[in-house]
Amino acid sequence: MQKAWFNIYNVHEEYHGSELPFAEPTEFRWAKEFEENYEVIYAELKEYLKNHNLVGHFIKSMVSRENSWKTIPLRTWGIQQFKNQKHFPITYSLIQKYPEITSSSFNLLEAKSKIHPHLGDTNTIYRCHLGLDIPAGLSDCAFRVKKEIRPWQNGKWMMFIDAYNHESYNNSDRDRFIFVVDVVRNEFKNDKAKICATVMTSQFLQKRWQKYPILKKLSAETIKFLAKCLHPFTRLAIVCVNVLKVY
């Protein structure tokens, strides 16, 4: 069994696992149903965008142009985004059918923009991209994991190990839209609550680093210690915010 890896416990260390960079949609029981409904999913996003805007990713340094990578979450590592879900009833009804989905969001990468190479939070999930509006082919709009580059396709999934070094680029003249879900790998399915709490702890600390850059100078051991101390509180917080419908 592959060992669970988390970025927050291995700060400054690149992930070197044995998994293949990409997985195939046929490996996932839910993949076909989403592909069959991709036009409906995209229609809900287009309707939402008539009166709303997506929000830029909180780590500004990850993109070539500020706020060129934008999202709207429906579920975030087990935290239900109730206010957003009401705008996407059909999409969320699909998500609800599959408990292995820990996160889901719509994702925009603007024209002439790039998401710089980076590592994901953990190897315990597959991150999955469903193409909604892909403006160009491999040379102008694509995705790299390790040394392999693949293009997105409208209505098709791209699944990959998020822990590996990866990047996205859209050199076309139009924006790129995808739907994203994170799915717990079968070998880690009994650790879903632990995985969600660990990643949310990591994101909490990353947001603090953005606000207080001096914290980036903390040693890896100090960061690991802080993460382990915060983990049980994060786990409880996820339960509480869902019960109280905070988001």
What does this structure look like?
By secondary structure, the protein is α+β, with helices and mostly antiparallel strands. The chain has 2 domains: 175 residues, B-lactam Antibiotic, Isopenicillin N Synthase, Chain (Jelly Rolls, Sandwich); 52 residues, no CATH class. It is 30% helix and 27% strand. It has 6 helices and 12 strands. The strands form 2 sheets. Strands 1, 2, 3, 4, 5, 7, 10 and 12 form an 8-stranded antiparallel sheet that branches. Strands 6-11-8-9 form a 4-stranded antiparallel sheet, with no helix packed on it. A hairpin with a 2-residue loop joins strand 8 and strand 9. The radius of gyration is 17 Å and the shape is globular.
Note the topology.
Blueprint: E1 22-23, H1 31-36, H2 38-49, E2 55-56, E3 69-76, E4 79-80, H3 82-85, H4 89-96, E5 101-109, E6 113-118, E7 125-133, E8 141-145, E9 148-151, E10 157-161, E11 166-170, E12 176-184, H5 192-211, H6 220-243
Antiparallel strand pairs: 1-10, 2-3, 3-4, 3-5, 5-12, 6-11, 7-10, 7-12, 8-9, 8-11
Question: Beta-strand percentage?
Answer: 25-35%
- CATH domain class name of the largest domain: Mainly Beta
Q: How far do the termini sit from each other? A: 36 Å
> Could you give the order of the helices and strands?
EHHEEEHHEEEEEEEEHH
Shape: globular
Task: Give the second-level CATH assignment, the architecture of the largest domain.
Answer: Sandwich
| CATH fold descriptor of the largest domain | Jelly Rolls
User: Helix/strand-derived class?
Assistant: alpha+beta
Largest sheet: 8 strands, antiparallel
CATH superfamily of the largest domain: B-lactam Antibiotic, Isopenicillin N Synthase, Chain
Number of helices: 6
- Contiguous low-pLDDT stretches (5 residues minimum) are none
Number of domains: 2
Mean pLDDT: 95
Q: How helical, in percent, are the residues?
A: 25-40%
According to DSSP, the number of beta strands is 12
Radius of gyration: 17 Å
